[in-house]
Amino acid sequence: HVQLVESGGGSVQAGGSLRLSCVASGNTRSRHCLGWFRQAPGKKREGVASVDSGGDATYFADSVKGRFAISQDNAAKTLYLEMNSLKPEDTGMYYCVASLRPFGCGHRPVDYPYWGQGTQVTVS
Q1: How does pLDDT run across 13-69, given as a tens digit for each residue?
Q2: 48 within 8 A of 36, measured Cβ to Cβ
Q3: In principle, which of 41, 56, 88, 116 could form an S-S bond with 4, CB 3.0–4.6 Å?
């Protein structure tokens, strides 16, 4: 079992930046795909970005390509999401997720059994 705790959300003006962090604990000896989802009010959860356990294969939703970056510090067991040039449509609850698979990361919520509690991002 893996526990995930996000931080770094907040309110920012359009064009601004935020850096989300996610600390993993529990069974972190196994390798996992890691990622971020978000959910805006009244909308479905959307896969934002993911990275495989090797850190080589990454995915970004078209809506965030060129603006968001995903990285991980394996020693600190921390996943990051660097968000730049934020837009009001980036507003939502952001969730850190972990898969049971080390590679071949999916982009659907069902591909990730482990979820954090979420951190709110509001862009005005």
Answers
A1: 999 999 999 999 887 667 889 999 999 989 999 999 999 988 877 899 999 999 999
A2: yes
A3: 116
Q: How are strands ordered across the β-sheet holding 78-83? A: 2-7, 18-26, 78-83, 68-73
Nearest to 39 by CA among 118, 113, 115, 124: 118
How far, in Å, CA of 68 to CA of 81, rounded? 7
State the chain's maximal CA–CA distance in angstroms: 40
What are the two backbone dihedrals, phi and then psi, of residue 90, each rounded to the nearest 5 degrees?
A: -85, -5
- CA pair distance 3, 54, nearest whole angstrom: 20
SS3 of residue 41 by DSSP: coil
Count of CB atoms situated within 10 Å of the CB of 59: 17
Give the separation between CA 81 and CA 78, rounded to whole angstroms. 10
Return the pLDDT at 58: 86
| Count of residues in the chain | 124
Q: What is the pLDDT of residues 65-82, one digit of tens each?
A: 999 999 998 888 899 999
